[in-house]
């Protein structure tokens, strides 16, 4: 993979902060289109999609333990991705990470993959 730049790492870290992090990171990474930043923006968008889509389904279940387990699962995915961004490593999320990299190609240099 490519060398990690300062702006790419900044975008990769910011994308993990709050729900608007991917939007902020997208604009930070807009000019130089750093691959490291794009990689983690796609991972973070995928984690948010899991959170909202499956979270809505889990919310319909009256058992609170299902929700606790789900939120723990999403938190573990988030920590795994965040640690990868902090350590300058390209860490795909287990099982779903490769799909997130394919599905969320929202910029011209992303479509090359």
Automatic annotation (TrEMBL):
Q: Membrane: is it a keyword of this entry?
A: yes
Residues that span the membrane, as ranges:
12-28, 40-61, 67-86
Keywords, A to Z, come to:
Membrane, Transmembrane, Transmembrane helix
What domain of life is recorded for the organism? Answer: Bacteria
Tell me what this protein is called. Answer: DUF4870 domain-containing protein
What species does this protein belong to?
Avrilella dinanensis
């Amino acid at each position: 993979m490519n060398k990690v730049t300062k702006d790419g790492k900044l975008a990769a870290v910011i994308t993990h902060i709050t729900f608007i992090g991917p939007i902020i990171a997208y604009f930070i990474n807009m000019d130089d289109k750093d691959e490291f930043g794009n990689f983690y923006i796609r991972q973070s968008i995928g984690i948010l999609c899991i959170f909202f889509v499956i979270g809505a389904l889990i919310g319909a279940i009256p058992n609170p333990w299902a929700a606790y387990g789900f939120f723990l699962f999403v938190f573990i995915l988030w920590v795994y991705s965040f640690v990868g961004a902090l350590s300058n490593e390209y860490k795909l999320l287990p099982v779903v990470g490769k799909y997130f990299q394919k599905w969320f190609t929202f910029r011209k240099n992303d479509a090359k993959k």
